[in-house]
Design goal:
326 residues, alpha+beta, Ribosomal Protein S5, domain 2, Alpha-Beta Plaits, 2 domains, five-stranded mixed sheet, 9 helices, binds (3R)-3-hydroxy-3-methyl-5-(phosphonooxy)pentanoic acid
């Protein structure tokens, strides 16, 4: 059976950083995100009898490092469900990958759903989809769900998974994403997670992270944008201070990243509510409300560093599409 799924990346509001168990990708802490409608990965999977190995094409390329990771995930899925056979996989993104926009999250969420469906399995719970996603990429654990998502850190493979805490239509937030570079990240998040504990500030972060998770949930429930925005921006800076003070240290920002951060603060001085958050790439998510969207976009567009703006709202869980990629 040939199946195609579309999945969206997410933007972490309270970030996952550091792992308690690297092999199982059990995170050091829980995290909360918003899945991003408008940005997506589309993946078609078909198990074909004549294949002697998985045949994988991502964004028109067969890069060894990506192909290996996809094969490993297909092995995991085959093993979990006791299935055999090799698959043809074609995957396309409509946004830049490897630049801090969680393309591995949407990629592995789409692959998990498409491969499970291609195997004819119809009774796999969303909890198991999230667990499978997590084993391939931490963010895929959240991208297997829709809307506003909480990943509970858990203790082991069975207890570390994500759930939607609000559907996409709970809150009409807008994420204006400023693309300042399409360069691939210099330090991958897998490398970065392993360095988290070398920062002297990591223990301080761990000491108050559960408090932050509770507070953001209160703001989300009440749709209280000002403290919500202040918290996610402070969280992004705290997260980056861990990167800056890891050993070896790394700085994910480009001059354009800082220019966008300054513009967001200038917008606020002018009464336009907008707050930034940044993952391990250079590109900046700017969260705002619909009434400010145009002014935010205009101000970011004026930056000489911004080559493109993408706009997203809270989006759905991975869903099947009828047009296949091959
Ligand atoms: O899923 P990974 O290994 O790419 O880690 C993602 C880490 C951050 O994007 C920085 C934070 C997060 O929670 O998404």
């Amino acid at each position: 059976m040939k199946t195609t799924f579309r999945a969206s990346p997410d933007v972490a509001l309270i970030k996952y950083w550091g792992k308690k168990d690297a092999a199982l990708r059990i995170p050091a802490n829980g995290s909360i995100s918003m899945v991003l409608a408008g940005l997506d990965t589309t993946t078609t999977v078909e198990f074909q009898d004549h294949l002697t190995a998985d045949d994988i094409m991502i964004q028109g390329e067969t890069k060894e490092i990506e192909v290996k990771r996809v094969r490993k995930h297909l092995d995991r899925i085959r093993q979990t469900f006791g299935k055999n056979g090799y698959a043809k996989v074609v995957s396309e993104n409509n946004f830049p990958k490897g630049t801090g926009l969680s393309s591995s999250g949407s990629g592995f969420a789409a692959l998990t759903y498409a491969a499970v469906a291609a195997l004819g399995l119809t009774d796999v719970s969303s909890q198991q989809m999230s667990i499978l996603g997590r084993l391939a990429s931490g963010t895929a654990c959240r991208c297997a769900c829709g809307g506003f998502v909480e990943w509970t850190e858990g203790r082991d493979n069975e207890t570390s998974y994500s759930q939607s805490i609000y559907p996409a239509d709970h809150w009409d937030l807008v994420d204006v994403i400023a693309i300042v570079s399409r360069d691939m990240k210099k330090t991958t998040s897998t490398e970065g997670h392993a360095l988290a504990e070398t920062s002297p500030f990591f223990a301080a972060r761990q000491a108050h992270i559960n408090g932050k998770l509770s507070v953001i949930k209160e703001y989300l429930a009440a749709k209280d944008f000002t403290p919500f925005g202040e918290l996610i921006e402070a969280e992004a800076l705290e997260f980056h201070s861990i990167l800056h003070t890891s050993n070896p240290s790394f700085i994910a920002w480009y001059p354009g990243t800082i220019d966008v951060m300054e513009r967001v603060r200038m917008l606020r001085k002018n009464g336009i509510e907008a707050y930034f958050t940044i993952n391990t790439g250079f590109n900046v998510h700017v969260l705002t409300l619909p009434q400010y969207q145009q002014q935010v976009a205009d101000t970011l567009q004026e930056s000489p560093f911004v080559s493109q703006l993408l706009t997203a709202k809270a989006g759905p869980k991975p869903n099947p599409v009828t047009t296949h990629l091959f």
